[in-house]
Amino acid sequence: MNKKIESFTGLRFIMIMLIVIIHLDGIIQYLGEFGEIHHRIFSETYMMAVDFFFILSGFGMMYGNLLKIKDEELSIPSITDGLKYAINHIKKIYPTYIATILFGLIIVVVKELIANTVSIKFCIKQIIQLIINISLLQSATAMTFFTHAYNGAAWFLSSLFCIYLVSPFFIVLFRKISRSLKSDLLFMCLNIFLIIVLSGLFTIIENKCQQINGIPEINGLVYSSPYRRLFYVLLGMNIAMFFSRLKERIDISKRIATILEIIISLLAIVHYFILRIYIKNYSYCMIIDMVILILFFIIFAFDKGIISDLLGKPFMQTLGNMAMYIFLIHFVLIQHFYTMINEKWGWNFISVYVYSGIVLLVTFSISWILYKKPFMKRGEKYFN
Questions:
Q1: For the whole model, what pTM was predicted?
Q2: More confidently predicted of 57 and 35
């Protein structure tokens, strides 16, 4: 098996840009009819991108483990092993993460000082939020009060960190109990089932909590908590095992790979950009989401078609490796300057385009600088 699947690296950039576009959607909607069209087109695509990264993380962890460790060398990991594993997987992005958190904290404090509303309560709140964010455990609280305190996009890294803590155990578990393509498919179906069930259960819990006075608002269970996102990562692990076994049995030509890549790409575009908007049953929607993504990963994992060739170009590889920086940096800019600009100028064609352009320019400039730093290694593990 090839050690690196370059098509996945290129796909990181495309998926990250879908997330950036939907985050800018909040201001683009002010552009009248154009804003409404933009919202209709991109309103559902961020779901594919977010799901993609969680599944990719699971795929990368299992795929890398299959390459490095033989079945007879597997051993049950300890709690300490899980902690070391989690730290190892986030340590390269952690300095950038902390920088965005501190930047957000400074902006929050400056705004409060300008408004002359600094109080003891405000200071205590910032201390608590900062401690939780530094620990990367904010997503485990399932409260946007913590996850969106300084960088609203940081919930993703937090959720992944929590999942990394238990990932070594699941890697060993799956490798020990799964011995065939059929068992891999069975575990995929089980993960999809649990994703749907937990979505419904957590939605009920969130609604119940909102109706109880004095209870903190639990509003991140469904979307951002590691308790549900864990099963997307496990799905990625199952896909990696399935693909590894499949590749040992069959090999596809470049022509077949190209046809399959085009078909699954068109299916994904039609589903996420058109059909998903009109599917009213959320459970059906998630099942289709997962099936498309499973096929998407298996097909592109062969890394052989023309689309894979384009994704594997050095330019796309560079952008893909910058994705983690783009992800953390872009949202902190949007989050903390949105209100300020809205109050001073309001949103019109000029302010929307100028603001969006500045956000993208600053994001890509900083991301490029961080990526080119000598102490930063290419091919980070964060999105693998």
A1: 0.92
A2: 57
